[in-house]
Amino acid sequence: MNRSLCIFLIPVSLLLSCLAQHIHATQYIVTNTVPNTPGGQLFDTEIGVNFTLSIMPTINEFIYKVFEESSPDDRRDVPVLNVYISEFPGYAYKNGDNINISASAMYNIYQPRSISKWMFTSVMFHEMAHVFQWHGNFGAPGGLTEGTADYVKVKSGYYNQASYTKPGAGQKWDEGYGVTERFLEYCDSLLEGFTVKLNKKMRYKYDEVYWVELLGKPVEKLWRDYKAKYGNQPQENTIDIYHGLKY
């Protein structure tokens, strides 16, 4: 290949790479559907659309980093990600590529008001992880997907370390949230990057054989080993900053 052709191909490859990144870029939209409610007003006053839009790309990139998804081909394609501040029972949930956060829950639990942005950012790490994680085409246990989302939140540092679930707590491995998150950390200690590898395996389906393939033991045996390591602690009754609200 002659030199002039090589010089021409390098910029083209860079252009194609940039184009691929642009094609897979996510558009973020934030809508406060209840601006006249106490919670809606709190959102506008203490958090705001602009702040939310400013943290979403950062959280998105952090999730890619945690899951080791450096290429667009590794990632879930999410053309548009909506965040809705609305009214419903509970705290927050994801449906499709939409995140819904309860205005009344924010109003009740964001105390003192000065930490509203921190608490909002914490739930955004969890909910955005749901958007971009793999879940075996919804075949993975719900507790595993919740624990994986909490895994991202814990990695971010946006969680209440004093009241968060302690290692060894819980009654079953797929209990979800902090219980499953701490179990995933234990599995990481057995195999570096285990949680990332498991997430990648769940791109198209979920199978409990993945635990054997990665760690050499069925998940129930791993859970028994984990519980034994921490003295078979009973279910702990912790109270975190969300006062029992699930998301």
TrEMBL record:
<protein>
    <recommendedName>
        <fullName>Plant Basic Secretory Protein</fullName>
    </recommendedName>
</protein>
<keyword id="KW-0732">Signal</keyword>
<dbReference type="Pfam" id="PF04450">
    <property type="entry name" value="BSP"/>
</dbReference>
<dbReference type="InterPro" id="IPR007541">
    <property type="entry name" value="Uncharacterised_BSP"/>
</dbReference>
<feature type="signal peptide">
    <location>
        <begin position="1"/>
        <end position="20"/>
    </location>
</feature>
